[in-house]
Amino acid sequence: MKKQYAYDLVVVGGGTAGAFSAIAAARSGVKTAVIERNSYLGGMATGSGLTEMNAAGFQAAPLYKGLEKEIFDEMIAAGDAEYHFAVPMSSNPDVKIDRLRYNPEMLKILLEAKAVESGVALFYDTELDTAAEGEEGCTLTAHSPYEEMEFSCRYLIDATGNADLVQKLGGETIKTEAEKQLVATLMFRISNVDLKKLDDFIHSEDLKKAIAEGYEAGILKGKILAFTPIPGSRDVSLNVTRAKFDYEDTEATSAGLVEARSQILPVFQFVKKRVPGLEESYISNIAPMIGVRDGRRIRARYMLTLEDLDQMVSFEDDIACGCYPMDIHDPVTNSVIWKILPGVYHIPYRSILPVGLHRTLTVGKCLGSEKQAFAAIRVMPIMMNVGESAGYAVALALKGDQKLDEVPVPELTACLKEKYDG
What is the chain's alpha carbon radius of gyration, rounded to the nearest angstrom? Predict the structure, then answer.
């Protein structure tokens, strides 16, 4: 017999976008639950080995306000995060990005604490099975290893990262052909590092030489060797492995994981010998999940384009902003294709409204965008901003007893201005 639950909002997916949606909604008086297949919040930010957030700042200053600023500031105050401005990318030193480096384990704890304090109900180790959207509300079924559950709610948020909920609701989605999907990365952590020696190396011409040597020897599969020091430790994460596979094909994904893990030891042996500061280091962690850069996207009321970003179009229904350049990890050339964008660009509410659905929003990288725009907006600080704004939009809809596509734009923009500037 299925357990029965009733909420105002159910968020499917507890990555950063979903967690921010849930916390923002719950703080605004919305009875909220999160269904998450893992046993923690944060998704890629806390489980993939990532230890920095690209484009968290703009022109050497923090970019985001609201809940995002609250969490970043608390982590910085605790010594678990720090801003680094104009950091060159190892794949192209001419591209410089403002970043927040952080300890993912501390972010994992903080996100969960914020969710619990806000009154969010957490359903970990829970997989979505079915979903339906009706005139007055929504239903979905899910299961854990031991139970089956049925949820009724007024609204849904798809934060799965792959539009899984929207697909189950019958919404239209877009998937990149397998051979054109962006390259995936499996991160690993190195401990007992002399960070001063490593930093000197990273900011020298020797980094470029080491990348060339490793690539020519076949040890590095791409022209990248990205070390990220983790605040409060003598550890660094290393973004270097490369795997190509169809992320929706289980057999191919499993083979991709095997391929990426097989690259780790040769890479580590190479950098330990070649890179100053790693002489006494050791591998202390291999991420349990691989970083899939691609994802299925929704067909939204408005599909965001690279031209929108390049022209910094200001939409009347702006809900989020970003400044990360277009960054395509090309599966054919094994290189990174960049397009620098001129400043802070915007994301409209219509891009998180799936065509044909009325009580569902989509946050995270599966929102409505064309492929090149996706390659810019997919990074975590932008998706956190989108997620938080979606939570406030649900609160407005609930207050007005409206569907999500009926929320008046002036009310939404006024609400967001108060939340982020007030």
Answer: 21
Residue with tokens 């202390």: 284
Written as six digits, the tokens of 92 are 């192209």
Planar angle of CA 241, 15, 127, nearest 5 degrees: 100
Categorize the per-residue pLDDT at 327 as very low, low, confident or very high, splitting at 50, 70 and 90: confident
Six-digit token pair at 109?
């704890």
Residue 332: its pLDDT value, please?
Answer: 60
- Asked if 55 and 382 touch (Cβ cutoff 8 Å), the reply is yes
Sequence letter at residue 368 = G
- Average pLDDT on 124-130 reads 98
The pLDDT, as a whole number, for residue 183 is 86
Spatial distance between the Cα atoms of 123 and 282, rounded to a whole number of angstroms: 36
The pLDDT confidence band at residue 422, using thresholds 50, 70 and 90, is confident
Question: Which amino acid is located at 45 in the chain?
Answer: A
Residue type at 367 in one-letter notation: L
Looking at this protein, which amino acid is placed at residue 140? L
Residues β-bridged to residue 97 = 87
Contact 76, 56 (CB under 8 A): no
Backbone angles phi, psi at 395, to 5 degrees: -60, -40
**What tens digit of pLDDT does each residue of 66-87 get?**
999 999 999 999 999 999 999 8
Q: Give the separation between CA 289 and CA 256, rounded to whole angstroms.
A: 11
**Distance of alpha carbon 361 from alpha carbon 355, whole angstroms:** 10
Q: Decide the pairing of beta strands 81-89 and 92-102.
A: antiparallel
Tell me: the pLDDT tens digits for 87-106?
888 778 888 999 999 999 99
**Alpha-carbon torsion, ordered 318, 322, 326, 329, to 10 deg:** -120
Which alpha helices (H) appear in 128-179, and where do they start and end? 164-168
Over residues 117-127, the mean pLDDT reads: 98
- Give burial (CB, 10 Å; 0-12/13-18/19+) of 30: buried
Residue 10, phi then psi, degrees to nearest 5: -115, 125
User: To which H or E segment does residue 143 belong?
Assistant: strand 138-143
Backbone φ and ψ of 66, nearest 5°: 65, -145
User: Cβ contacts of residue 212 below 8 Å, gap of 6+?
Assistant: 223
What does pTM read for this prediction? 0.95
Task: Look at residue 110 and give its three-state secondary structure.
Answer: helix
Taking phi over 0 as left and psi of -120 to 50 as alpha, with beta for the rest, 364 belongs to left
Element (H, E) at 380: helix 380-399
